[in-house]
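Journal club side-thread
Mid-discussion, someone asked how the predicted structure for our own chain would compare to the paper's figures. Pasting it here so we can look after the session.
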Amino acid sequence: MISLYDSRQRAARPFEPIEAGRVSMYVCGPTVYDVPHSGHARTALTFDMIRRYLQWRGYEVTFVSNITDIDDKIIARAAETGTTEPELAIRYKQAYVDQMNRFGIIAPTHQPHATQYINQMLDMIAHLIERGAAYVIEGKGVYFSVAAHERYGDLIGRTAEELREGAGARVEVDEDKADPLDFALWKAAKPKEPVWNSPWGPGRPGWHIECVAMATHLLGKQFDIHGGGDDLAFPHHQNEIAEAEGAGLPFARYWIHGAMLNVNGQKMAKSLGNFTTLSSLLDTCNPQVLRLLMLQTHYRTVMELSDDSLATASGAMDRLRSYHRRSLAMGLEPPTLPVTTNQTTPSNLEPTAPTTSNNPNTNPSNMDADALASFSEAMDADFATPAALAVIFDLVRAGNAALDAQQTTPAARMFATTHHLCAALGLNPGDQSSTAANLSSHFPQEASAQDDTALRIDKMVAQRNQARAAKDFATADNIRNQLATEGIVLEDGPNGTSWRRV
C-alpha cells in the first residue's frame, strides 16, 4: 500500500482514495505575471512524478492545476509594462505552458483560470457570510473571520494565537479587521483595477477563495490530494482550509508539499544574481538531465542546483543512455510501454484498486520481479525517488554484466525492466539528445565539455566503422585502443557499434 506524508497530520498515512482505483488531485498552479523559473519546475516535477507513479500503479488520475490570472502582482506588473491584466496573463500563461511542455510535464486534466470562476466564488462568499464565517467592511470588501475556524494554523503546526504574535510578517494588518489574521475574500474596487459586480459592490476576489472555488467545482466537495510548494502552506493553503471548512466542506483528504531548491548553495533570488528562468535552464540543460537531477533528491528535501549536481546527473543519464545503446547494438528490444496522457488511464491498466500482486505494471512475467518489488517498495514509501533510482541503476549494472557474459535472456529481462521503471518516473533512456550539464552564465564550469566529448567519440566510432568496412583493420584497432586509454569500451553487435565508459 502507498503511504504518503500528510503535511496537515505531520505524519505518514496509508493512502486510501475516496473512490477505489481513482485519484483526484488539485495542485496550485502559477500566478502568471512573469516567466516560470527553476522553482516552478521543481514543484511541477514533484507532482508530475506523483501523478505518473499513481498511474503506473493502476490508478486513474484526475489532475487539476489552476492558473491565477487576477492578483495584486498581475495588476502591478500590467501597470509597469503598460498593458492590460488579461493581455499580461495570457502572455505569461502561454510561457508557462510552453516551458512545462519542454520539460516533459504532463498537461493537467483540467487547467481552470480564476477569472472563469467568479460566480462560484461569489456563491461561496455569500455562503460563508450566512454561516457567520465572514463579514463585510464597508469600502474595503468581505473578510473571512479566523475566529470561526477553531483549527486555524494546524496545517503548519501553529495556533492562531501564535500566528497573531507574528501578524504583519505574512498577513495584512488592518485595524478595521476584527482580527489581524482575518483575510480578504472580496476586495472592493480600486481605480484602474479589474472589477466584477457583487452583492457587496464592485471588486475582485481575494487569492485564497479562487482555489477553493475551482477545486470543489471540478473535483467535488471532497477530493483526495491537495498539493503545492511548501512556500504556499501559509497563508495560502491554511486559508483555503479555513474557507472550505467554514463553508462546511470536507475539502482535501491529504496535503502534500514539495520543498524548494537552492542555487549553488543559496536560496534563489534576483537580489543574489542567481535567479534562473526555466527557459534559460532548458536552453542549456537537457530536460531529461534536469528531471533526473530533481528525482535524485526526495521531494520534501531542499535540492541543490549547481555545477556539481548537474554534472552528476548528466553522468548518470549518460550511463542510462549508454546502456540503452549497448543493449540495442546487441540486438535487444525495448519494451512497448503504455503512453501516459493528460486524461486517460494507460490502455493496459484497469481502474480498480491496484495492488502489487494484480497490477501488470508491478508484476509482468517478462521482467525482473525482485527489481519491480524493490522499486514499488521505495515509491510506495512516500515516493522515495532516490531509493527508486538506486534500483534502476542496480539494474543497469546487472544488465551490463549480463551483456558482458553474453547471457541474452537475463540481459533482455534487465533491459525491459529498466525501461519500464524509467517510464514510471518520466525518464527515457532512448532519448539520445545531448546530456551536457552546461548552464551558460548560471553554471559555466561544465560548459560544453561533455557535449564535445560525446560528439568526438561518436565521430571516432563512425571513422572506425568506415575503416572496418574498407578492411583497414589497423586503423580500426588504433581507434579502439585510443578510446580504451580514455576509459571508453567499444562493443560490436548485430545492430552496430555502441560505446560506454568504464
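Post-session note: The chain is about 45% helix and 15% strand.
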